[in-house]
Amino acid sequence: MGRSTLPLDSATDPTARRTAAPRVPQTVAKKRKQSRNRSPAPALPELPTVPYTSPDGRMTLDLRCAMTPKTRTLYAQTVGGEVGQAAMTREDVWHRAVEFLFERLVVGWSVDDVPTTGQKALIARFRVASAEERTWIRTVLREHLTEWFPEMQAP
Fold first, then answer.
1. Which of 10, 41, 95, 125 fits a 20 to 30 Å CA distance from 143?
2. Residue 114 domain-assigned?
3. Is the pTM for the entire model greater than 0.70?
4. Does any domain span residue 154?
5. What is the pLDDT of residues 82-119, one digit of tens each?
6. Is 3 within the bounds of a domain?
7. For the chain, what is the domain count?
8. Residue 36 class from Cβ within 10 Å (0-12 exposed, 13-18 middle, 19+ buried)?
């Protein structure tokens, strides 16, 4: 009573096929079972955010209140002009610093009750923002840095 459904003369018949599933080595089978039994990774803790609303009430920004040490170092290098192209002007560095903070701190942005979330969508919206919107965002970022990250240089 084997696992095969082969007729007795199939050993000599080259056209006969086996219908039984091939054996999986025991180590591979164990690994598969272990991966099925593994519990999902624990969810990351929800980081606190602070909402900022524009004076006219049209816009709302939700900003993170935490930044990793590596992000702080990268920001310091960006503000210092160490990151980027060698031919960057002072204004280019300033714009890059604002965009860097926007990428790292903004979690959500709502304009006229139209929410934008997700890093790609947020940065795309920021790049097409009007001068008035950018001015307000820079003001909010400076205020947020002063309150939550006083050791960091504001753009």
1. 125
2. yes
3. no
4. no
5. 766 665 788 888 889 999 999 999 999 999 999 999 99
6. no
7. 1
8. exposed
